[in-house]
Amino acid sequence: MSSCIFCKIISKEIAGKIVYEDDQWFAFDDINPQAPVHVLIVPREHIPTLNDLKEHHRDMIGSLGSVINKVAGIKNVKDPGFRVVINCNPDGGQLVYHLHVHLLAGRQMTWPPG
Ligand code: 5GP
Ligand code: ZN
Protein backbone atom coordinates (compact mmCIF):
# COMPACT_ATOMS: atom_id res chain seq x y z
CA MET A 1 0.00 0.00 0.00
CA SER A 2 1.61 3.23 -1.20
CA SER A 3 0.88 5.37 1.87
CA CYS A 4 2.00 2.79 4.41
CA ILE A 5 5.31 3.50 6.17
CA PHE A 6 6.09 -0.19 6.70
CA CYS A 7 5.35 -1.03 3.05
CA LYS A 8 7.86 1.71 2.12
CA ILE A 9 10.48 0.18 4.44
CA ILE A 10 9.82 -3.30 2.98
CA SER A 11 10.17 -1.97 -0.59
CA LYS A 12 13.31 -0.07 0.56
CA GLU A 13 11.77 3.18 -0.62
CA ILE A 14 12.74 4.50 2.81
CA ALA A 15 15.61 3.23 4.90
CA GLY A 16 15.25 0.74 7.70
CA LYS A 17 17.89 -1.13 9.72
CA ILE A 18 17.12 -4.58 8.35
CA VAL A 19 17.57 -7.48 10.76
CA TYR A 20 16.09 -10.36 8.73
CA GLU A 21 14.10 -10.96 5.56
CA ASP A 22 12.60 -13.89 3.69
CA ASP A 23 9.87 -14.28 1.09
CA GLN A 24 7.07 -13.65 3.60
CA TRP A 25 8.55 -11.69 6.51
CA PHE A 26 10.68 -8.59 7.00
CA ALA A 27 12.28 -7.49 10.28
CA PHE A 28 13.92 -4.16 11.12
CA ASP A 29 14.91 -2.13 14.18
CA ASP A 30 12.22 0.11 15.66
CA ILE A 31 12.99 3.81 15.12
CA ASN A 32 11.96 4.62 18.73
CA PRO A 33 13.19 1.62 20.74
CA GLN A 34 11.46 0.81 24.02
CA ALA A 35 14.25 -1.58 25.06
CA PRO A 36 17.92 -2.08 24.09
CA VAL A 37 16.67 -4.55 21.47
CA HIS A 38 13.42 -3.59 19.74
CA VAL A 39 12.72 -5.24 16.39
CA LEU A 40 9.55 -5.04 14.32
CA ILE A 41 8.68 -8.23 12.44
CA VAL A 42 6.18 -7.55 9.67
CA PRO A 43 4.59 -9.58 6.88
CA ARG A 44 5.56 -8.41 3.38
CA GLU A 45 1.87 -8.38 2.57
CA HIS A 46 0.00 -5.29 3.74
CA ILE A 47 -2.38 -6.66 6.37
CA PRO A 48 -3.72 -3.83 8.57
CA THR A 49 -4.40 -5.63 11.84
CA LEU A 50 -4.56 -9.02 13.52
CA ASN A 51 -8.31 -8.89 12.80
CA ASP A 52 -7.62 -9.01 9.05
CA LEU A 53 -5.95 -12.41 9.01
CA LYS A 54 -7.74 -14.88 6.73
CA GLU A 55 -7.59 -18.59 6.15
CA HIS A 56 -5.06 -18.15 3.31
CA HIS A 57 -2.60 -16.55 5.76
CA ARG A 58 -2.36 -19.81 7.71
CA ASP A 59 1.03 -20.86 6.27
CA MET A 60 2.51 -17.41 6.72
CA ILE A 61 1.39 -17.23 10.36
CA GLY A 62 2.62 -20.78 10.84
CA SER A 63 6.13 -19.63 9.96
CA LEU A 64 6.07 -16.72 12.42
CA GLY A 65 7.40 -18.76 15.33
CA SER A 66 10.53 -19.72 13.43
CA VAL A 67 11.03 -16.12 12.24
CA ILE A 68 10.82 -14.89 15.84
CA ASN A 69 13.31 -17.60 16.78
CA LYS A 70 15.70 -16.47 14.03
CA VAL A 71 15.46 -12.79 14.96
CA ALA A 72 16.05 -13.60 18.65
CA GLY A 73 19.11 -15.60 17.58
CA ILE A 74 20.46 -12.80 15.37
CA LYS A 75 20.09 -10.39 18.30
CA ASN A 76 21.59 -12.90 20.78
CA VAL A 77 18.69 -12.66 23.22
CA LYS A 78 17.38 -16.23 23.26
CA ASP A 79 18.98 -17.11 26.60
CA PRO A 80 18.37 -13.93 28.58
CA GLY A 81 14.92 -13.89 27.03
CA PHE A 82 12.63 -11.51 25.26
CA ARG A 83 9.02 -10.46 24.84
CA VAL A 84 6.84 -10.40 21.74
CA VAL A 85 3.81 -8.14 21.49
CA ILE A 86 1.18 -7.48 18.84
CA ASN A 87 -0.93 -4.38 19.39
CA CYS A 88 -4.36 -4.42 17.75
CA ASN A 89 -6.51 -1.35 17.10
CA PRO A 90 -6.74 1.72 19.38
CA ASP A 91 -7.28 -0.03 22.72
CA GLY A 92 -4.36 -2.31 21.93
CA GLY A 93 -2.15 0.71 21.33
CA GLN A 94 -1.69 0.17 17.59
CA LEU A 95 -0.34 3.23 15.77
CA VAL A 96 0.84 1.79 12.45
CA TYR A 97 -1.84 -0.14 10.57
CA HIS A 98 0.42 -2.73 8.97
CA LEU A 99 0.44 -5.87 11.13
CA HIS A 100 3.67 -6.13 13.13
CA VAL A 101 5.18 -8.08 15.98
CA HIS A 102 7.36 -6.19 18.47
CA LEU A 103 10.33 -8.22 19.75
CA LEU A 104 11.69 -6.51 22.87
CA ALA A 105 14.75 -7.56 24.85
CA GLY A 106 17.87 -6.43 26.66
CA ARG A 107 16.22 -5.40 29.92
CA GLN A 108 13.92 -6.92 32.54
CA MET A 109 10.34 -6.69 31.30
CA THR A 110 7.58 -5.87 33.76
CA TRP A 111 4.08 -7.26 34.13
CA PRO A 112 1.33 -6.22 33.70
CA PRO A 113 2.18 -4.21 30.58
CA GLY A 114 0.93 -0.62 30.47
P1 5GP B 1 2.35 0.13 17.25
O1 5GP B 1 2.06 1.17 18.29
O2 5GP B 1 1.57 0.38 15.97
O3 5GP B 1 2.22 -1.27 17.74
O4 5GP B 1 3.90 0.28 16.91
C1 5GP B 1 4.38 1.03 15.84
C2 5GP B 1 5.88 1.07 15.99
O5 5GP B 1 6.43 1.51 14.76
C3 5GP B 1 6.38 2.01 17.07
O6 5GP B 1 7.16 1.29 18.02
C4 5GP B 1 7.20 3.05 16.29
O7 5GP B 1 8.34 3.48 17.00
C5 5GP B 1 7.55 2.30 15.02
N1 5GP B 1 7.76 3.14 13.87
C6 5GP B 1 6.92 4.12 13.43
N2 5GP B 1 7.42 4.69 12.32
C7 5GP B 1 8.58 4.04 12.05
C8 5GP B 1 9.56 4.19 11.01
O8 5GP B 1 9.44 5.03 10.11
N3 5GP B 1 10.63 3.36 11.05
C9 5GP B 1 10.78 2.41 12.03
N4 5GP B 1 11.88 1.66 11.97
N5 5GP B 1 9.88 2.26 13.01
C10 5GP B 1 8.80 3.06 13.03
ZN1 ZN C 1 1.82 -1.71 4.68
What key attributes describe this structure?
single chain, 114 residues, alpha+beta, five-stranded antiparallel beta sheet, 5 strands, globular, binds guanosine-5'-monophosphate, binds zinc ion
Question: Can you tell me about this structure?
Answer:
The chain has 114 residues and is an alpha+beta fold. Helices cover 23% and strands 22% of the residues. The chain has a 5-stranded antiparallel beta sheet with strand order 1-2-3-5-4, covered by helices on one side. The termini are far apart. The chain binds guanosine-5'-monophosphate (5GP) and zinc ion.
> In oligomeric terms, what are we looking at?
single chain
**Overall pLDDT metric:** 97
Largest sheet data: 5 strands, antiparallel
Which H/E pattern describes the elements? HEEEHHEHE
| Radius of gyration based on Cα positions | 14 Å
Shape: globular
Structural category:
alpha+beta
Q: How many beta strands in the DSSP annotation?
A: 5
* Low-pLDDT runs: none
How many helical stretches? 4
Strand content range: 15-25%
Ligands (ions, cofactors included):
guanosine-5'-monophosphate, zinc ion
Q: Helicity range of the residues?
A: 10-25%
How far from one another are the termini? 30 Å
- State the strand order across the main sheet: 1-2-3-5-4
